[in-house]
């Protein structure tokens, strides 16, 4: 059994800064980033034997999709688009169907923790995983419902929540409930620490680590 973290929506690696710390015992970390300027930053910044940087995004289709942005620093870059956003850059980016990736790279007995912060594609990804049964491989997925930003897609959130309830899938955390704390890394740490099985990928801290935490070293 491998312990796997899936960072879907890597941007500049804000989440990687936390999950690649030695205190987390993930065997494999996949970071998905389809936007070339952001992917270039990731390749220039991170070098870890546990990390695989993936130059495509996850979706419910495999192929190229129009990616709307105002440049690499745009935190709202997305395949979804609002007319009022006036995104000035449209880039053809690569995407792979989430269920295809899971079928090829994730085993049924792997421990899988997944972060979905992908600017509106979260419902496409989750629905595809439910459609194919690959969702059963997820031990916890933290969902940031960015579809709320897009009027034409906002209905997808309640529809997905109802579908997860109907199918009995409850291995999820909601961003607004678990991403609390100071800074992005602190919020990621709080989410991971709150998982009931966290000791499987984050062993209990030894006294030097607890001392450093108490002293904020």
Report on this structure.
The chain is of the alpha/beta class. It contains 8 helices and 9 strands. It has helices at 16-19, 36-45, 98-105, 122-132, 156-167, 175-178, 183-194, 207-215, and strands spanning 3-8, 28-32, 51-54, 57-59, 63-69, 89-97, 111-116, 140-143, 172-174. The strands form 2 sheets. Strands 3-2-1-7-8-9 form a 6-stranded parallel sheet. The radius of gyration is 17 Å and the shape is globular.
How would the blueprint of this fold be written?
Layout: E1 3-8, H1 16-19, E2 28-32, H2 36-45, E3 51-54, E4 57-59, E5 63-69, E6 89-97, H3 98-105, E7 111-116, H4 122-132, E8 140-143, H5 156-167, E9 172-174, H6 175-178, H7 183-194, H8 207-215
Parallel strand pairs: 1-2, 1-7, 2-3, 4-6, 7-8, 8-9
Antiparallel strand pairs: 5-6
Helix pairs in contact: 4-5
